[in-house]
Design the sequence.
């Protein structure tokens, strides 16, 4: 999956530490950078972006490195998650969270109901894609809507689409004839991913400090079409056509029944 998948370390551990720096560059632009230190003391730049809301007609834009608006939880930092790790389907589909380097454009419709449309152009170098040169390597479209249900509840739903390409995206596959031998295998072809989500939130009269309930679910569907090239230790090198259609989902609920306890 291009990264480690599965639960984190058992027992007490630091996990991830985040350091965020942000400032207004001028009246039109705002900058933010978030650095993460993992349990092995490696430092990485999760986000480094410049954002502006000075565009006309409800448009906003940002450029740099950022968490894609593909899917609901993908754009949230780890310290805002309801659980200690991201849902398994994210790990299987993206090796964690999907980060892109490029530009994002959003439009907030002038309606009573919340409606937002957007697109991203990125380099496409993160799994499931692989950057094979300069230029645009990934395209993302997304749309979301939502609203209030009385004075105590609200909802939000959305759909998104990611299109990217891989050029010799390599993984290792166990050899069927020789133990402890793993055969390098490369995938080259097109990859498209669909996501849809729905979130429901409830709090008495909108006061979430005392009690609140959140139900959240997402569904992912991917289609990949291309070729596999394997350097097989037992049978010799070989090439074959590949078509895959993995899918997955999760559903979670969090209920806070008194302040400080969920």
Sequence:
């Amino acid at each position: 999956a291009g990264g480690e998948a599965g639960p984190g370390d058992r027992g007490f551990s630091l996990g991830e530490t985040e350091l965020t720096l942000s400032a207004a560059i001028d009246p039109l632009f705002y900058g933010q950078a978030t650095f993460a230190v993992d349990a092995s003391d490696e430092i990485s730049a999760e986000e480094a972006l410049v954002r502006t809301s000075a565009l006309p007609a409800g448009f906003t834009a940002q450029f740099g490195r950022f968490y894609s608006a593909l899917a609901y939880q993908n754009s949230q930092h780890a310290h805002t998650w309801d659980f200690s790790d991201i849902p398994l389907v994210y790990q299987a589909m993206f090796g964690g969270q999907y980060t892109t380097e490029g530009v994002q454009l959003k439009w907030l419709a002038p309606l009573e109901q919340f409606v937002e449309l957007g697109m991203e152009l990125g380099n496409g170098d993160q799994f499931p894609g692989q950057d094979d040169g300069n230029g645009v390597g990934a395209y993302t479209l997304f749309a979301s809507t939502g609203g209030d249900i009385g004075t105590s509840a609200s909802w939000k739903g959305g759909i998104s689409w990611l299109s990217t390409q891989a050029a010799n995206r390599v993984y290792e596959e166990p050899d069927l004839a020789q133990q402890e031998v793993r055969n390098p295998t490369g995938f080259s072809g097109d990859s498209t991913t669909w996501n849809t989500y729905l979130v429901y939130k409830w709090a008495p009269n909108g006061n979430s400090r005392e009690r609140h309930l959140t139900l959240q679910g997402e569904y992912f569907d991917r289609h990949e079409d291309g070729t596999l090239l394997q350097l097989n230790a037992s049978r010799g090198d070989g090439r074959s056509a590949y078509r895959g259609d993995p899918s997955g989902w999760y559903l979670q609920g969090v209920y806070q029944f008194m302040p400080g306890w969920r």
